[in-house]
Amino acid sequence: MSSSSSSQPPELPLKPVPGDYGHFFFGAIRDRLAYFYHEGRDKFFENRIQKHQSTVFRINMPPGPFISSSARVICLLDAISFPVLFDSSKVEKRDVLDGTFTPSLAYSGGHRVCAYLDPSEPKHTSLKSFFLATLAARHNNFIPLFQTGLTELFNDLEAKMSSKKEAYFNTLSDTMSFNYVFRLLCDKSPSETQIGSKGPKLVDKWLLCQLAPLGSLGLLPNFLCLIEDLLLRTFTFPFFLVKSDYKKLYDAFSEFGSSVLDDAETFGIERDEACHNLVFLAGFNAYGGMKVLFPGLIKWVALAGEKLHKRLADEIRTAVKAEGGVDFSALDKMVLTKSVVYEFLRIDPPVPFQYAKAKADLVIQSHDAAFEIKKGEMLFGYQPFATKDPKVFENPEEFVADRFVGDGEKLLKYVYWSNGRETEECTAENKQCAGKNLVMLLCRLFLVELFLRYDTFEVEAGMFMFAASVTFKSLTKASST
To answer: Where is the signal peptide (predicted)?
Structure first.
C-alpha cells in the first residue's frame, strides 16, 4: 500500500488527477460557498467523488481569497492514498497546520511553534523531544488529576440536571479540560492564579481569531451567507483583539510552569520560545483538541444506546473490582471500552483535516488508479472519508462498538486520527500527535468514570463551528457498582 511509483501494482492505470480549479479567484469563491453553504462539508466531497468517479481529485479549499495565496489542493479521500500525508520522506509539513493559510505569528509570540515546523527542521526535533519528555515526567499524574476533574464535572452536571432538567455539556467539558491541562503542566489549579475561572474563555477567543476563516457559525439562512463569508474570510482577525488575553495566558504559564521551562533549557530552547510553545501546546493542541474530543465521544456513546451502556458498565465495573481500583492494569482489561474509543476516533476524528506539500514529483495510488503529483503541489486529506472507506471497513457509516475487538485489531492500521497510523508510535522525528497515548487514556478513563457512576444517559446532539454540541437530557445513576 505504498504510494511510491516503485511499489505501484502494475494493474493500476496511471491517470491524470481529475477536476479543475477554475479561475484562481472566482473558482476558489465558487468552491468555498459550495463547501460552507450550498452543499455542506460532507456533501461537497461526496458530490465530487461521484462527479469524477475518483477519490483523488483537484479542488479549492477554504479560506481562499484574500487570506490564502492559493486555495488549490489535491484531495485524497480513501484509506490507501491518505497515508502519504504522514510520509515525511515524500511530503513537507511546513506551515500547513491550518491548511492553505498561516495565522499571524503574533498569535504565538512571533515564533513558528512546533506545530508549524516540518520534521526536517532541527528545531522541530528539539521542541518535540521537550514535549515528549514533559509528558513522560508527568505520567503518574495522568489518571489521578483527570479523576479529580471528572468528579468536579459530574457534580456540576448533576447539579444542573437537578435544577434545570438538562445540562449543556460543552461548557462543563471545556472547564474540566482547561483545568486538567493547566494542573498537569503547572502543578497548580487555574483558580489559584491570575487566570481564575476565565481560562477557557481566554483560549476560546485566541483560537477563534486564528481559526475563524475555516469555520461557519451555521446560524444564518443561505441568502445571508455572503455576509458571514465576507466577515470571516475577507481578512484575518488582527492579533490585537486578543493581545491582553494571550498575555494573561503567557504570564500564567511563565510563572507556574517554571519547572517545565527549566527543563526546556536542557534541550537548547530559549525560555521565551519554550513558553510560547507551551501555551500553544496547552491551548491549541491539548485544550483545543479536547473541546472537540470529549463532546464527540459523549455524543457517539449516547447515540449507541442503552444496550451498549450496559455492556460497558458491566465490563468496567468487573475490571475495576478485580483490580481493586482504576489503574493502567484495569484499563488494559477493558477491551470493549478500548474498541469504543477507537471506533469514535475512526468515525468522527477530532481533527478531520490533513495538509502537506509534495517534496518531489511522486505517484500516489488509490484503490483504483495511480496519479502523478508534481513537486510543490498541496495535498489535502479529509480524514472521515479515509477512515470510513467502504473498501476497508464493513458498514463504515455505522458506529460498531466492538469493531476493534479480537481480529478487528488488524484494522487499527487504518485509523489515522493522530496524524499517523494508530499502529505507529509518536517520535521526535515525525508529526504524530505528542499526546497520542494520553488522548487514548483520557477517553477510556472518561468512559470508566462515567459508567462507574451512571447506568445510562441520553443527550441531544448538534454541531456548532468545529465541534459536536451536546446537551444532557437524562442521567441515570448506577444501580450497582
So the answer is: none
CB 428 within 8 A of CB 125: yes
Percent of the chain with pLDDT over 90: 92
Per-residue pLDDT band for 8 (boundaries 50, 70, 90) equals: very low
Q: Which residue has cell 479480537?
A: 406
Q: CA 69 to CA 80: how far, in whole Å?
A: 29
- Write out the binding residues for heme: 433
For 336-391, write each residue's pLDDT tens digit: 999 999 999 999 999 999 999 999 999 999 999 999 999 999 999 999 999 999 99
User: The C-alpha cell of 424 is what?
Assistant: 505507529
Long-range contacts of 173-178 (CB under 8 A, 24+ apart): 173/290, 173/291, 173/294, 173/295, 173/298, 174/200, 174/204, 174/287, 174/290, 174/291, 175/199, 175/200, 176/149, 176/150, 176/152, 177/149, 177/286, 177/287, 177/290, 177/291, 177/294, 178/203, 178/287
| pLDDT above 70 as % of the chain | 96
What are the structural domain ranges in the chain? Answer: 5-477
Grid cell 504522514 is found at 86
Concatenated DSSP letters of 393-459: SSSTTS--TTTTSGGGGGGGGG--BTTB-TTS---TTS-S-TTHHHHHHHHHHHHHHHHHHEEEEEE
Return the amino acid letter for 320: V
217: closest CA among 227, 203, 226, 228?
A: 228
Protein fold of 5-477: Cytochrome p450 (1.10.630)
Q: Is beta strand 353-358 parallel, antiparallel or unpaired with respect to 91-92?
A: antiparallel
Q: Residues marked as binding?
A: 433
* Contacts of residue 80, Cβ cutoff 8 Å, sequence gap at least 6: 1, 3, 365, 366, 367, 389
